[in-house]
Write a structure and sequence with these properties.
By secondary structure, this protein is of the alpha+beta class. The chain folds into three domains: about 15-170, no CATH class; about 180-320, no CATH class; about 365-520, no CATH class. The protein contains 21 helices and eleven strands. The strands form three sheets. Strands 5, 6, 7, 8, 9, 10 and 11 form a seven-stranded antiparallel β-sheet that branches. The chain has a two-stranded parallel sheet with strand order 1-2. It has a two-stranded antiparallel ribbon with strand order 3-4. Strand 5 (about 370-380) and strand 6 form a beta hairpin. InterPro entries: OTT_1508_deam-like (IPR027796).
């Protein structure tokens, strides 16, 4: 494609964002301009460099913090003392300390330049245990400059084709949402069918998470595969490598190795860095965006998935039940390995931690303590009975409420109706205006339960003319409540009674419910919680990986910076794709 119009496709597990699209557009224009003019812009005055620096700032901050947390002596000792690297490393450390104090973009840029200059400096012949980690941080910090220079060089070397380069961001297909209870029942049925030991309740909880609704996102590798196979014409020649920021999961890797691409009819046409070996229970692949996809593609995908399913059941019948050492998935680049004794100790500590967390689970449930008032609210019963008014107690916000209510809100207690699901709550604000009765105008809150442990609200189903719901369709669960409030100019929250006239003037409620249903608000709420749960799960795993990599000295320093471990885990990502592929890139002299 280099002699025609090359296109770079970009995908993200969570879906591309506006910032990604903006950067893609800017890079396209910038690379095309260099290819046409064959002029290399000066980095200090290049707006594209400033944009790249801002886009990657959060990740660069991580590497800068890792360097600043070490001593000047440790940073210098990572490089060969007989080279210029040691002196330049000291300069880099000084810049990192300065950046830690003022977070100046100019200082960050100087750090990137210094790290870039260190890229060819030899490492110490006798590195300290932390030396390799420091070298990695330095190289990762300077890599942005290397990428910038590589972009410029590529634009000129391949100027004929890069003058027509396109960078396209692929929209991720909507994640399918499933009921956790249905998934659990399906897992149990499959285990019986294939004579595999039934997973325990704790194992299912650990694999599927705590949420009652499960999101099944399509991984970036699968987004790219489906797009390349379904969207490109037969004359297109896609490059047979999917460059990902981290190794592929086991399911993505297996599918890519089995799938026959439609152009060459070759298995394993698309390559990646390899697999980290983890199986994600909620993995998903979908052709929803391509309803007219070639039957050949559907057939090959189906055959590949059936082969994977067979392989999985074969392995499940024979695989050891011992927990295997963790394999690094993120830029922490950690693989927990060692002898059997170490693995047993690690497993024991994990069991102890799990037990400790289980015993303390009750204490994590928020408690409504400080009663504020009781107000008249509307209850829409789940069993289909007519709506009615009743008195509900309101409490001060407990601070640890696992919901989206601002801390200024007064929290209604629906425990008598929702029982254990009292805090699996969702709400929407509703502003009511221009009603026949002026007393109905005001601000209201519509509350419902997210947990499918409670039945769908039959009253609202009847209102919407629904006889039944699909297995993966989301609705308002349990009794639905409407409360009324007022916020004054100082943003103080005041509870108010729902007018009794509301029972005879419910048209605004019906209109609101229909509008929310058209906007798929119950599903939107589940999606937002699923995204938070997935991020929290990933954050916890990355924190464990990063912490296990730290030396005793680094862990002591970590105590002095509260929240740093969360920060490191939050923006960690995998690195080293080209190294893993053995690609040498452009001549280092050109960069």
């Amino acid at each position: 494609m280099l002699n025609k119009e090359p296109t770079v496709y970009v995908a993200k597990n969570g879906g591309v964002e506006d910032a990604d699209k903006d950067l893609a557009r800017s890079l396209t224009v910038w690379i095309r301009a260099i290819a046409v003019t064959t002029k290399r812009p000066t980095i200090e005055n290049d707006a594209m460099w400033a944009k790249l620096l801002n886009y990657y700032k959060q990740r660069l901050d991580i590497y800068a913090a890792q360097i600043a947390s070490s001593s000047e002596l440790e940073v210098a000792a990572a490089f060969d003392g007989g080279s210029d690297g040691a002196a330049l490393a000291r300069e880099l450390h000084g810049l990192s300390v300065k950046y830690e104090a003022d977070e100046s973009v100019a200082v960050l840029q100087d750090m990137v330049f210094a790290a870039y200059s260190l890229r060819h400096e030899p490492a110490s012949a006798t590195p300290a245990p932390s030396g390799r980690r420091l070298m990695n941080s330095v190289h990762f910090l300077g890599r942005l400059r290397s990428a910038y220079e590589a972009f410029k060089e590529a634009a000129i070397v391949f100027r004929t084709s890069f003058a027509k380069l396109n960078i396209v961001c692929i929209e991720a297909p909507p994640a399918r949402l499933l009921s956790k209870s249905l998934v659990s029942k399906r897992v149990e049925a499959l285990a019986r069918e294939h004579e595999i030991p039934q997973p325990t309740k704790d194992e299912l909880q650990k694999s599927l998470g705590k949420a009652s609704e499960l999101s099944t996102p399509c991984h970036a590798e699968m987004q790219l595969l489906i797009h390349l196979e379904c969207s490109l014409g037969p004359s297109a020649k896609p490059f047979p490598y999917l460059g990902c920021s981290k190794k592929a999961c086991w399911l993505c890797h297996e599918l890519l190795s089995r799938y026959k691409d439609k152009r060459t009819d070759t298995k394993g046409f698309y390559q990646t860095r390899g697999s980290h070996g983890r199986v994600y229970p909620l993995w998903n692949i979908t052709l929803a965006a391509y309803p007219q996809a070639d039957h050949r593609i559907r057939l090959d995908l189906s055959a590949s998935l059936r082969g994977i399913e067979t392989l999985m059941f074969e392995r499940l019948r024979t695989v050891s039940q011992d927990r295997l050492p963790a394999v690094a998935e993120s830029s922490a680049n950690v693989t927990v390995t060692g002898g059997a004794l170490k693995r047993r100790a690690l497993a024991k500590s994990r069991v102890a931690e799990s037990t400790k967390n289980s015993k303390g689970a009750e204490s994590q449930i928020p408690t409504l303590k400080d009663s504020v008032c009781s107000k008249t609210c509307m209850r829409i019963p789940a069993n289909g009975e007519p709506p009615h008014l009743l008195s509900i107690k309101f409490y001060e916000h407990p601070g640890d409420l696992p919901g989206h209510e601002p801390v200024t809100f007064r929290i209604p207690d629906f425990g008598a109706f929702w029982n254990a699901s009292n805090f699996d709550r969702a709400h929407r604000r509703v502003t009511v205006e221009a009603q026949p009765l002026a007393e109905l105008n005001g601000e209201y809150l519509l509350y419902w339960c997210r947990s499918d442990a409670l039945p769908p609200n039959e009253c609202l189903m009847s209102l919407l003319g629904l006889q039944s719901l699909q297995a993966d369709e989301h609705f308002w669960h349990g009794d639905v409540f409407i409360t009324r409030y007022r916020e004054d100019g100082e943003f103080e929250f005041h509870c108010e009674d729902v007018p009794r006239a509301s029972l005879d003037n419910m048209e605004w409620i019906k209109t609101t419910i229909r509008a929310f249903w058209d906007r798929r608000e119950p599903e939107n709420e589940i999606r937002s919680w699923q995204k938070v749960d997935a991020l929290n799960e990933k954050l916890s795993a990355d924190k464990e990986i990063i912490y296990s990599k730290m030396s005793a000295t680094e862990r002591e320093k970590l105590k002095k910076v509260p929240g740093m471990l969360d920060f490191l885990a939050f923006i960690s990502s995998d690195d080293g794709a080209t190294d893993q592929r053995g690609w040498k890139g452009f001549s280092s002299d050109s960069l």
